[in-house]
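Re-run with default settings, no changes from the original entry. Doing this only to confirm the output is reproducible before filing.
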Amino acid sequence: MAEMMDEKTLQNKLQEIYEKIDCKLQAECVRVGDKIPYIPYNGKYTVDMREENMSFWTNGFWAGMLWQMYHANGNQMYMETAKKSELVFDEALEKFTGLHHDVGFQFLHTAVADYRLTGNEKSKARALHAATLLAGRFNPIGNFIRAWNLDKTGWMIVDCLMNIPLLYWAEKELQDPRFGYIANQHAHTALKVLLREDGSCNHIAIFDPATGEPLEFPAGQGYASGSSWSRGQSWAIYGFALAYMHTGMKEYLNAAKQVAHYFIANIAATDYVSLVDFRAPKEPVCWDTTATACAACGMLQIAEMVPEYEKALYHDSAVKMLLALEEKHCNWNVEEDGIVQDGTVAYGREGEIHVPIIYGDYFFVEGVLRLLKKDFMIW
C-alpha cells in the first residue's frame, strides 16, 4: 500500500468512489426491483432470497445499504426499494421458526433504519417484535444468546455481538433495562469465552445449556478449531466497539482495540486485505474481502471514541483497507451486480469462495460514507 494521502486528496478520492457507488446502486435498484439479493451469479442477482429463504440472515443488508444511500443523498428510489425488503419480514415474523439470533442484522437494517429516518410506527413495531424475539433466546444459566435453531441449544457465536445493538435500541426506545441487561450479559460472556489472550477470537463456543459449562470451541466457518476466521475477528472488533458506544463500559472498548490490533498486524502482511483465516495454511490463498470491509467500519467506530492521539492507528488502517478493496477488488461495471469481489462465506465451502456477497457491499458502502460524513448510525 502507498503512504497515506493528504486529507484533501483522500476526500476527492472518496467522493469519486461514492459517485461510482451511487451510479452502480441505482442501476442495481432498477434490475433488482422487489427481490432481495445475496450473491450474484455470472454478474447478475438471479436468486431472490424471498423465495430461497425469507428468514435468511443476510436479507437486511440490501435494504441497509439503500437506507444509507437515501440518507446520504435523498434519492427516493433508494427509500422505496428498501421498504420492499422490510415487508418480507412480516411473513418471517409470522412464521417465526426460521428466525434466530440474526434478527439484529435483519431488522436494524430494515425496520429500525426506516423508523429512524422516516418515523414509521409500523417499522418500530416490527423492530420491537424482533428485539423481544432476540431477548427470548437468552440462556440465563450460561449468560449467552443462543445461536441458530434445531439442536444448537448450547451454542453462542461471535457474530451475535453485531446483533445485540437491536437490544440496546429497544432498551432506549422502551426505557426498559431488561433488553440492555441481556445484551451486556452476552457481551461479557463473549469477553470470557470467545476473546483469546492474543486478541484473536473463537467463532463458536458450545455450552451445556443446562449448567452453563463451556464444552468445546469448534472451527465454525474458519479453517479449524483454534484458528482465526477473519470475519469472526471483524464481528468482534465492530461488535465490542458498538457495545461500548451503547453502554460506555470500558472493557468493551478495550476488547475492540485488542482484536483490532491483532487484525491490523495480520493484514499488514497482505496489503491490507484479509485472508479468510489468519491461521490457515498458506496454500491455497483464500481472501475474504467482507471481513476487511466490516473490520474497517469497526475501526472507524473505535476512532470516534478514543482520545485524539489514539485515532490515527484505527482511522488510517481503515482507510488503507477500504482503498485496497477499491483498488484491487471492486467491480464498477454498472451492467453487472455486486461491487466488492472476492468475498468468502466460509473456509473451503465450495461455490462460495471469492464471490461478491451482499454484506461485503454493505460494509464497504458504510465505510466510505463514514469517511465522507454522509452515513447514519444504523446500529
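The first strand starts at residue 138 and ends at 139. The chain has a mean pLDDT of 97.
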